[in-house]
Structures are given as C-alpha cells and as structure tokens.
Amino acid sequence: MVQQEEIVLWIDRRWENAIEKHLKDETLQVHLENVLDELCNQLPAHEYEHISRAIQSEAAAQRAEEEAARTYAAYHVVENGQEWYFKTTPGEELLDACKKLRSYITTDESAAPDLFIKMFASGQPITAEEYDALTVLRLQNTGKNRGVFDLDFDKREFSAVHIMDGWWTWAMRDVSAAVYHATRSQFASSDDKWRKLLDHLSGKEITSAGHLSARNFSFGDEIIESNGKLNFYVQTEFDVDAAFGTFVLTDENDDWLNVYANYDIAEDRPCDTLELTLCKGDGSEESWSYPLNAAEQDVLLRKMDAFCMEQTGMSLRVYAQQFREEPEQQQGPVMKL
What we know:
Elements: H1 13-21, H2 28-41, H3 45-69, E1 72-79, E2 82-88, H4 94-106, E3 124-125, H5 128-139, E4 145-152, E5 157-162, E6 166-171, H6 172-183, H7 190-201, E7 219-226, E8 229-234, H8 240-244, E9 256-264, E10 269-279, E11 285-291, H9 294-312, H10 316-322, H11 327-331
Parallel strand pairs: 1-4
Antiparallel strand pairs: 1-2, 2-3, 4-5, 5-6, 7-8, 8-9, 9-10, 10-11
Helix pairs in contact: 4-6, 6-7
C-alpha cells in the first residue's frame, strides 16, 4: 500500500489572497507543492533514489492488486449498419445483459437512448482483437470476465459465450420475453431468476453466422490425414443456410454442402477456418472458407478431441503426435539388404 501523509495548513483567507497576488498565475497550494518538490530534490541522491524506487514499487503493486480484483464484460454491437466493441467493469453477467436489452427495446422511444451503446455510459472502447482476447479469458472461466455478448440489432439476434458450449444465440424477442418471466416476481432470488431465464430460453437457440456452438460440431466418417492435417467431416445436421449463407435446405434445388474441419499436425492446433464445398445439382462445385472466431475455435477443439478419443482411444494431441514422428517410423520396419 502506498504510504501517504496529509499535511494541513490553516491560513487566514486574507493572507492567502494577498500572497497569491504576488504569485502571478500560481495558486498558494500549487506554490507550496512546488516548494515540497524542491525540498525533496535537495535530499542526498542515494536517499532520494531509495524513496523514489519504493514509492514506484508500491504504486505498481497497488495497481496490480486493483487490476486483479477488477472484472469485465465484453460487447460487440451492430446497429443501423454500424458496429462497436467495448468493455464494461465490473461487467454484466447474462441476466444483467438480457435485462439491458429488454429495457432498451421496450422503453418508449421518447425516453430510450437512440443507440444501445448509450446505455453504457462508462463503457470503454476496445478493438476486435481485444474482444477476442476477452472471449478467450471468458472461456478459461477464471472469473475475470463475467460475460461476452454480441448483439446484432439489424438481424435482431442476441448471442452470449458459454464456457462449455461456446456461443448461445437467440432471437431478441425471445430474450425479452424470457427476461419478463424471469424477473416479474420481486421476491425471486438471483438464482431463481437465472434458472427461469434459462428455462424460458431452452429450446429456442438459433444458428447464427459467426456464432457456431457445440451443437453445430458433430463429426461423421473416420479421421483422415492429408497434407499435414487431420481432416474431420462435419455433419450438417443444423441450419447451414443461416450459418454459411447457402441455399440448400430447400426443395427448389438438389444442392448439398460438405463441411470439413482440419487440425494442423505441425502447429498442433485446429486450423482457424472451416472448409466448405457446395455440390450443385448440375455437377459443378464451389469451395470457400469460413473463418472461426475465438469461441468457435475453442469449442471445436474440444469436440475434435472428444471424437478422436471415441474413434481411436487417444486424445487428439497424442494421435497427432504419431504423424509428427520420423517417416521411417510411420512406414514400419525397413528390410536391410
């Protein structure tokens, strides 16, 4: 703790006014502070340096302690074609963020702010990279980050990061209705309100581009090694049109979509994109990549690892290690002549 001593001097206001007339643009308080600084500067050099280092060290320790105790929430907001990234402290949890949303969309227009971000007067702007870093922190479940939220008012979608499932996404109207049911009893505890919120949102999850969750990552076929990667075939048992902008869930054409997730053997991590191939009814194909954000990559890795354990009896890391061994070992014994 930084040690500070308050020095109080009492002086008649008439003396103060008279002195300040002769100090030109300087107040008496500022002048006395400068006198103290000068007295400190006149101390022996070794004593001055010792005290300065101690003060700086104590101040740094105090800042570190305050930062360690500080918690955050991170937001990405899209509204009227514009987007913002910001963080709040101490940060909102899911119920609090949902209540903010309901308040914004149900308040009379004459009383509500014209943009959702204006409901966070103390919000601090951050970059997209900082938002991703806070997403990773949330997934680590350290308690440092209490929530990561993505609100798209143009699409009317509300998304939040869950530490196990990755993204949860719902229609904003469903979130608003769930908040109403969760909070209408003023006697309900926080735990009861939380439970009621999730109960009313259960089964209403939607698939959203940029918010793939654990329920979107299930695999079929065997794991195939190709070009330094382990290839996983993603079963498309979800709304791929909503996720990838395709038009295959229809009777109007005979198109289908193949989705692949890859694990880079040399880098020992999942690739940061999904590979998609649209197979059209006329026999032609179209391929492109879907970039994975921090939450999607995290849940994808866990689902890959679980599938690898199920298929091979080994963790993904151990299984990939086999392909990093010497070629001779992969090919088996070589006969010597």
